[in-house]
Amino acid sequence: xxxxxxxxxxxxxxxxxxxxxxxxxxxxxxxxxxxxxxxxxxxxxxxxxxxxxxxxxxxxxxxxxxxxxxxxxxxxxxxxxxxxxxxxxxxxxxxxx
Length: 97
Fold this sequence. Notes:
By secondary structure, the protein is mainly beta. It has one domain: Lipocalin. It contains 1 helix and 8 strands, in the order αββββββββ. The chain has one helix spanning 5-9; strands spanning 13-17, 23-29, 32-37, 40-46, 51-56, 59-67, 73-80, 83-93. It has an 8-stranded antiparallel beta barrel. The N and C termini lie far apart (32 Å).
């Protein structure tokens, strides 16, 4: 599923994992999103407007970006085998310092 640049830009930013003390970075490369951290870098494949699929350490996971009532992305949930594995709170948007 191909998403517009405007939709992809909604998810770009820095996220803090609730189960670890490290950041996840979502960046836009061309018309794709990429997820990275210290030891990981993988492309995200859209399966819905706010849901993506990725291969992480040999396993498939789904990422769901969650918005608040003002339509701003506030966190990302990570699912494996249909179960919630963890979440990451958005702590910085693109171009914030």
